[in-house]
């Protein structure tokens, strides 16, 4: 899909292809993070004497990166959602002027606080190499976290494109549901259980393939770095439900643009 060509962005098959590719990035990022211990000091506020900053080492690191990336226009792209939208810097490059494909309020749909909470409290304990601290790996842990968080955020906020494509395909049906503020009805309308099942099955296969050394496949006990069942659980309980929440939050406001 090409963000300069709106028709390619709102094609549900293209969107789903992009989501499939993002699985690979997410799995590899989680595998990368899994070699380190939990290291709670990365996530607790005010553990380190960071000058002029109150918050965790991870928050500080991610903010520095977002400031730098905002200057190379990362957050002008409609598929990138910052964790610190109020603290970005202006780019000295000319603006990109992507043709609008999403509703005018789409930047206000930002699930990154929830993604951060879910990642720290649910995903990190599931995938880390052990509990406790690894002081020599604070930086590597934190950069692995940032990669994983950004990949998860991009995937989950892709729900906006899915929602827009679905709204355009069934405008009348969604208009009724939105006017009735029928959250359950919207959730039902955006759910495609067959697609979800396919994703979970594919994750199981990918987890078995990517997480192991392929030359060891005939050995008795090839070790997965992140257990395939854990990947499935992360998607089933966290990634897909949050994607659906982004879709629903986006759709609930979708008639604002029609007025
Ligand atoms: O592919 C879709 O139709 C989506 O809405 C995306 C997604 C997902 O998160 O992967 C979410 C809800 C559907 O039930 C199926 C899949």
From TrEMBL:
Known catalytic reactions: chorismate = prephenate
Coiled-coil regions, chain positions: none
Keyword Protein biosynthesis: no
GO MF: chorismate mutase activity
Entry's localization field: Cytoplasm
EC number: 5.4.99.5
Residue stretches making up the Chorismate mutase domain: 143-247
One biological process term in Gene Ontology: chorismate metabolic process
Pfam families named in the record: CM_2 (PF01817)
GO cellular component: cytoplasm
PROSITE patterns, A to Z: CHORISMATE_MUT_3 (PS51169)
Cited function: Catalyzes the Claisen rearrangement of chorismate to prephenate. Acts at the first branch point in the aromatic amino acid pathway where it steers biosynthesis towards phenylalanine and tyrosine, and away from tryptophan.
Annotated protein name in UniProt: Chorismate mutase
Source organism of the structure: Kuraishia capsulata CBS 1993
